[in-house]
Amino acid sequence: MTPQDDTPPLRVPPIDVALVRRLIATQFPRWAHLPVRPVAVGGWDNRTFHLGDAMTVRLPSAAGYVPQVDKEQRWLPVLAPGLPLPVPTPLALGEPGEGYPFAWSVYRWLDGRTARVDRITNLTGFARTLAGFLAALHRPEPAGGPPAGAHSCFRGASLTTYDAETRRAVEVLGDRIPVDEVREIWATALRSTWTGPPVWFHGDVAWGNLLVREGRLAAVIDFGCCGMGDPACDLAVAWTLLSGASRSAFRAALAVDDATWARGRGWVLWKALITLDGPDPVRVAEARHMLDAVLTEHAESLAR
Q1: How far apart are alpha carbons 220 and 94 in whole angstroms?
Q2: Within a domain: residue 9?
Q3: Phi and psi for 106 in degrees, rounded to 5?
Q4: Which residue in 67, 78, 128, 230 is deepest, having the highest Cβ count within 10 Å?
Q5: Is residue 174 part of a domain?
Q6: Average pLDDT for residues 117-131, to the nearest whole number?
Q7: CA torsion sign, 72 to 78 to 80 to 82?
Q8: Cα(119)–Cα(162) distance, rounded to whole angstroms?
Q9: Residues 65/56, Cβ–Cβ less than 8 Å
Q10: Residue closest to 231 by CA, chosen among 127, 148, 115, 144
């Protein structure tokens, strides 16, 4: 339980084209002539807008996401030279203004479409390319990066952070899920911890943060949940996007041991369980897909 915080939440105005235009005009007048329009897929934690044809503006939607702004500004230029694919390039740091209470960023635009399966030419090749990117990212250098914590939504930290929430979700879902198998998968995930040095992780390797061009992985975006810790959270994509041969190729290319793989499975299980009882039918359907993928892959692993 966290201490009671009596500070009233900051009022956030509608984050829309009009607000972005005002912020740009007052803080970066050299870009005031450029058109502003929402991006097709804007994300949950931040609102993103095109600024002309070569830039994007990204604004946190709530106070909890604000630390990610300075983190990306500080570390993306440091990480980028060691990565085999393009990542966002910060161009400017905006300040609170025009009634908007948070810092915000301008980035160089990265061209591509979000990585839906139907947009990927060869899913196994895509999986190997993604594994190569993550292998380059999952290293202890550059040192001094932010340790996993609230800024990363505890990605990269111990799964025990979400143990109570997961157990409550199992109770709520009841006979809508195979309770015994779910509890076994979760217990296995909790039995191990990362014993190596903290390494860099992305924290949200999801289809919406992977860009494809001509059917191939072309860029990785949204490092808001990045930090240093256990890289198992970055394996979630094996169950949310990959399957069958592509999942196997991904694991083999990263040389993931059984314990780390189990923790990666645990991250997906947690997310699926806490989403399954939600009000959004689209997200519930995604959660059901994630849970089915975890259950199927776990059963196959036991049969081998």
Answers
A1: 23
A2: no
A3: -115, 130
A4: 230
A5: yes
A6: 98
A7: negative
A8: 33
A9: no
A10: 148
DSSP state of 6: -
0.90 exceeded by pTM: yes
Range of the domain at 67: 17-108
Tell me: do 214 and 84 sit in the same domain: no
- 38 is written with which tokens? 């929402």
Residue 6 has pLDDT above 80, yes or no: no
Whether 23 and 90 map to the same domain: the answer is yes
Q: What is the CATH number of the domain that holds 193?
A: 3.90.1200.10
Beta-carbon contacts of residue 304 (< 8 Å; ≥ 6 apart): none
Q: Do both 150 and 199 map to the same domain?
A: yes
Q: How many CA atoms lie within 13 A of 200 on its CB side?
A: 24
User: How many of the other CB atoms lie within 10 Å of CB of 301?
Assistant: 12
CA distance 6 to 139: 40
Using the predicted structure, report yes or no on whether residue 9 has a pLDDT greater than 80: no
| Cα distance between residue 135 and residue 253, in whole Å | 9
